[in-house]
Amino acid sequence: NGSSYVELDTVSEKLARKLQLALLRFGILSHLRKRSRKGKVNEINGRMVIPKHDRWELKIYGENILRFAKEIGFEHPEKKEKLGKLVERIHLSKKDTNVDVVPSVGKIIKEIRKFYGMSIENLYGSRVGS
């Protein structure tokens, strides 16, 4: 569906955390979060469905997808094909899709740079943007 991550959903927090640790043994970093779904009404194939539990999402992004594909992968043909396409997109994009962004830090870094009289090249160790 064009997603840029590999995801596993489960209602079991324990399973999600154990899978996250297992992935880490392969050097694969993942993100885990709880999604509130308990009691929310959904319509699936014309039927009303009301989940009894919240959902845990385990997602793998960026270069960790490449590691997942190499070390673990999928046996299911459709999932294997989707993972292959995702790996191809990552190789073509040459972008790090797992960059952590700290809000409003740019202004603080600029003030520190000015205080110490540093150029952008000095701060980053090379010319950026060229």
Description of the molecule:
The chain is of the alpha+beta class and 130 residues long. It folds into two domains: 5-93, Homing endonucleases (Endonuclease I-creI, Roll), CATH 3.10.28.10; 101-130, no CATH class. 42% of the residues lie in helices and 18% in strands. The chain contains five helices and five strands; from the N terminus they run βαββββαααα. The chain has helices at 13-25, 63-71, 77-93, 105-115, 120-124; strands spanning 5-10, 31-35, 42-44, 47-49, 55-61. The strands form two sheets. It has a three-stranded antiparallel sheet. Strand 3 (42-44) and strand 4 (47-49) form a beta hairpin. Helix 2 (63-71) runs antiparallel to helix 3.
Structural class: alpha+beta
Overall radius of gyration: 20 Å
Number of spatially distinct domains: 2
- Tell me roughly what share of residues is in helical segments: 40-55%
State the low-pLDDT regions, or none: 126-130
CATH classification, class level of the largest domain:
Alpha Beta
How is the CATH topology of the largest domain named?
Endonuclease I-creI
**Under the CATH scheme, which architecture of the largest domain would be assigned?**
Roll
Distance between the termini: 34 Å
Question: Largest sheet at a glance?
Answer: 3 strands, antiparallel
Counting H and I runs of at least 4 residues, what is the number of helices? 5
- Widest β-sheet, arrangement of strands: 1-5-2
Shape: extended
**Can you give the mean pLDDT?**
83
Could you state the order of secondary-structure elements as H and E? EHEEEEHHHH
